[in-house]
Each structure stands twice: as C-alpha cells, then as structure tokens.
C-alpha cells in the first residue's frame, strides 16, 4: 500500500502507512530493509534529505550481504547530490562502479551508477568527465532498452547543455518529455517541460508553459483525489474489520454483561442496606447530640438568667422594698425616688429579656443592634456607636450577624460588671471582603493572662466559628480593647 501511495505522489500518506508496519517487525531482514528504504524515498521526495539519508543508512545496516546493500547506498548518493555534497556522492558511486567493473553479480544497474556518477562530476564542476559518463550511461540504457532509465539520462544531459548549447539541451529535454508522456511518468514530464520552457522563446515557450501549468494543476487534482479515495478505502476496510471484531466481542461481552449486571444488583443491595443502617444510626446519633446541645444551651441560658436576676435584679428589688418600708411615701421626693428605682428595675428586666431573645437578622438588624448597645448608656457610662449605619448588613450572613450581636452583648455585660468604664466606643468599618469591629473602653482593664478566666473565651469561640479573628488588648488601669475581623 505504501508503494502504491508513493507511485501516486502521496508521500505523507505513504509514511503513515509504513508506520503501521512497525508493530509487526520481529527481527531485522529483507522486510525492514524494504520498509526503511521506502521511508527514505518518501523523505527524499519531500525534500527531507537528512531524514532520507538516516533511513537509507538504516536500511543498509539491515542488509545481510553486500549485494542487497547496493540499492540503499545508491539512494544515499542521489540524496548527497541533492544536498550538493558531491564529493560524498562520488565516493559512494565510484565504489559501486568499481564493483560493477569487477563483475560482481547482482549489483545496481551499471548504467544508473555511471549516469549518476557523471551527473555528480558535472555538478561539482568537472563538466568534461561528467559529460562523458552521462553520455555513456545514456548509450548503455539505449542498448539495454531501458526506456524509463533513459528519461533520467536525457534530463541530466539537458541540464548539462542548458548553458552551452540550448539546441542540444532542447533535444534531450524533448526526448525525455516524449518518453515520460508515453510511460505516463508525470514528474519527469514536468521536469522536461521546465527545460523546454527555458530553451525556447516566444510562442513555443508559452505553449510549453501552458502545458506545464495544465499538467501540474491536473496532477495535483488527481493526486488529491487519490489521497481521498485511498483514505476512504482504508477507512471502509478498517470499519468492516472493526465491525466483525465488534460482533465477536459482543458475543463474548453478552455473558460478561449478564454476570456483571447480577453482581452489580447484588452489590447495590448490599450497599443500600449498609447505607440505610448507617443513615439510621447517624440520624439517631446526631439527634442525640442535638438534644444534648439544646439541653446544655438551655441550661447555660437559664443559669445566666438566674445569675443576672440574683446578682442585680434581686438586689434592686430588695433595696426598693426596703425603701418603701423605711421611707414615708406621702413625701413627694420619696415618691419620685421610688419611681426612679422602679424604672431602673423595669429597664433591667427589659435588658435581661432582650439579651435572651432571638436575634432579628432582617432589615431592622442594625437598629436593634444599636438599641441593644445603647441600653448600656447610664449616668456613669457613655456608649458611643460609630458608623453602624454605613455597613451593608444585607451582605453579611445571618449566622455571622447573630455571632456579632452575641459577642458585643457579652462585651457590654463584661464592661458593666467589671470595667467601671466612663466611655465605651464601638466602631464599625468594612471593605469588599471583610467587616471590622473595634471595641474600646477606658475602664480599669486586667491582666491578659486572665482573659479566659474572665469569660471571654466564649467570644473567641463564636468568632472563630465564623472563620473570623478576635484579639484582646488590655492591661491593668489602661482600659480594654477588642478588634474583630470577620469575612462577609
């Protein structure tokens, strides 16, 4: 197939087909010589001269005797001529010619070697010696009735005469053209026409030029059609082979498919049962965990509420009761003082209620947060809230809003109980990725080592759970500062 493709000018396709033979090569021999020689021919015609020489040399290495080695050596010499490495070509051809002169049987055609040797001498600049050998080669081919070989000899002589005698050059070119036309050798016809175009002028030259263009366009079209046809034949053949192979595979696969289906069904049932049991126990486990967590949360909330009521609210109520028992309420000033005490108790009850209510994360979040912070304003403490309205709270997740409110609430409770601060500042800032909250007060502070003991570990846990960070900065008598950074 590769040979047929080369005859029809499809050298790339020929190399592709030759590549398909390589997996079938078991050892070096006549087949590897042939394959590599065809690779060399394809590369030579594609002007890949170095690659061509490589394959010709590899073919020569695989030759088992000196006789079969002559063909690839002759091909190497032809490529050297194309590369203008005339001395290297002459060395090979002289060696071949010597073997022919010594009557070694089976060597390359004597006429071919002599003609190529003469052409190499001519291209090197030794025109007389080259002409003599080329002319001798032509006469030998005529004597041996080597019609195809005479085409190459006439083309060589046409090139030799092209610069010294256009008439003789024209005769040899015309002879090569006619013989190539008779044998339907397209490439040689085109080479002959090239010389005829150069050797003639006027109308005659134009006619040859027109023939060259027509012939060249025609051969390109024919060779392209051949490539497409050959590709389709290969495709159809491969498709038929694959279909037959597929039928055999399908028969073998049918039984395997049935067994696989049965195994998959069994495996599916096993996996389904395992997952069902696993889901059941996981559901039961997480329900238990959630129930314990809810109980713990409720307990913590109840404990905190009881502590607030005992530590603050109960004391206020007791003081108010004592006041009513010891002070005459008919006095207007005493009545006013009683009302103030009752108002403080009411405010404290509302504060405890607000601390333990669900957090509203909707559109009123900022207002409610500000109101919660403001409840810690008193005659002793001034709470300043900065830029809370400038934050786009809609871009922040609900869980993070809840964490923010709970942490700020704990900070304010901590401040109320421990810091004795006169001024508290809570500042809000944000950029495209993060929310920043800065808390600071001028209270009495405490040692950093006591942060966990003071109940601030819970705040840190809340912030870390939202992938944020919280840092505490405090020293005795130097206030308390907290910086919170939370991704939106």
TrEMBL record:
Residues 235-262 form a coiled coil. The keyword Transferase applies. GO terms for molecular function: ATP binding. Residues 402-487 form the Histidine kinase/HSP90-like ATPase domain. The keyword Chloroplast does not apply. Its EC number is 2.7.13.3. InterPro entries: HATPase_C_sf (IPR036890), HATPase_dom (IPR003594), Sensor_HK_TwoCompSys (IPR050482), TPR-like_helical_dom_sf (IPR011990). This is histidine kinase. It comes from Flavobacterium procerum.
